[in-house]
Fold these 2 entries.
Entry 1:
Amino acid sequence: MALSHLDFQQARIKQVLFKSRLRSVLYGVREAEPELFSVAHSPLGEWIQTVVKARFGTSAQVRELERLLKQMLDKGQELAALYQRGKIEEARAGLEQIDGYSRRIELALQSLERESGS
């Protein structure tokens, strides 16, 4: 099953959704729910499990994408913990690191998209 450009656009939207939810946590708009930082419960993690692995299996590229997602979610959880401990500015400054993970995830998605022929 070939993945379309739309499939990859959906993945990008899911990544933006995580960043938006994390930003909401770090600005006091919402609580940091454990599911936010779970690979299995994150929209992008679910997409990887149901869409990407159906097409690519557990190739090195897929494992790299999973690794980057886990690192981003772990860093997000760390930032939320900083916020909860009152280190608000430090937590918000960490959003730059989240953007770094996001850029690397984007590169991984682009690589998979090229391989998919979309």
Entry 2:
Amino acid sequence: MTDSLREMQQAAEPRLRPAVVKPGARTEALSRFLRNGTWRRTIPAGRAGPGSPEMDVVGRVTCERVIDGLWFSCTLEQDLFAGGEKLLTWKSRWVAGWDVAAQEYRAAGFDSNSVAAVF
């Protein structure tokens, strides 16, 4: 087969182009959850488990759209204090969005206690 014949054959073949997915109404509906913020609370003694002390909590969340705006990702951090002493910083990452293939919302979260949750 000559080069020119090969070029004509390739030009005649249909070309498949991958679909470009853009955020739609279902994705935009999640925008109300894209909030950055902070909080301060007191957890009563025993609320975090038997024998746990009263704890002060200072937390923050930062959210952003990721992967061409199709998903949102939030990073959460929460410092726990008891008697003025910092006990730990809990951290978590959440990703959520509209799954076009499954036709439903999907979310997953992971935290510094080595816990994963899929919704």
